[in-house]
Amino acid sequence: EKTGNIQQSIEDLRKALPDNKVMKVDFNASNLHTGKILVKAEEIEFSYGESPLFKEPISLIIRSGDRFVIRGNNGSGKTTLIKLVTGKLSPLKWNMERADFTHIYIDQEYSLIRNDLTVYEQAEQYNHRHFQEHEIKMLLSRYLFPHNTWDKHCSKLSGGEKMRLAFCCLMIGNQKPDMIILDEPTNNLDVQSIE
């Protein structure tokens, strides 16, 4: 009975502790003030051939600090819309204003992660601020890479681990883009990391 009570007390204490296995994202704020209009588009259209890609012209406003999701079937124009927003493509109709802003695109293949490097070596590639080794390792831990993963090759990482490592590298490099674009970001993350 005493053992059972002690076990229950330990369980209650564990539940009361903060969850340390949650990724802690801490990008410094971009230089843009919240609410600045980055992109304003009114009834833009795009076509790769004769017929328009979108069922109807698209209008949107994207402000600094906004978070939004683009959903649609394969081939519905999600990637094209992102390319229009970032200026890689131009709409057929020029009813589009774009502020000067920086962005980073994290694709589904996590191409900024080099598979030939270890987790620590990958993080070190982004160490433009000359962090000491223990500081990089502390940041890796914040992104759920404990010491036994630092020598693991990136080719062996799961999709969720690559996503977390990509965020960690951006933070180490102090790359604070005005817009972060994530392609299928929740496919490989656990519920806590998605939150």
Q: Could you name the key traits of this structure?
A:
195 residues; alpha+beta; 3-stranded antiparallel beta sheet; two-stranded parallel ribbon; 5 strands; 13% strand; elongated
Tell me briefly what this model is.
This protein has helices at residues 2-16, 78-86, 119-125, 133-142, 159-172, 191-194, and strands at 37-44, 58-63, 96-98, 103-106, 179-182. By secondary structure, the protein is α+β, with helices and mostly antiparallel strands.
Question: Can you put this structure into words, describing what you see?
Answer:
The protein is an alpha+beta fold. Helix content is 30%, strand content 13%. Strands 2-1-3 form a three-stranded antiparallel sheet, with no helix packed on it. The radius of gyration is 21 Å and the shape is elongated. The mean pLDDT is 83.
Note the topology.
Elements: H1 2-16, E1 37-44, E2 58-63, H2 78-86, E3 96-98, E4 103-106, H3 119-125, H4 133-142, H5 159-172, E5 179-182, H6 191-194
Parallel strand pairs: 4-5
Antiparallel strand pairs: 1-2, 1-3
Q: Number of helical segments? A: 6
| Low-confidence region ranges | none
Mean pLDDT: 83
How many strands in all?
A: 5
Report how far the terminal alpha carbons are from each other: 39 Å
What spatial order of strands do you see in the largest sheet? 2-1-3
Strand content: 5-15%
- Which structural category do the helix and sheet elements fall into? alpha+beta
Instruction: Characterize the largest beta sheet: strand count, sense, and whether it forms a barrel.
Output: 3 strands, antiparallel
> Which outline best applies?
elongated
Report helical residue fraction. 25-40%
Element order: H for helix, E for strand: HEEHEEHHHEH
What is Rg? 21 Å
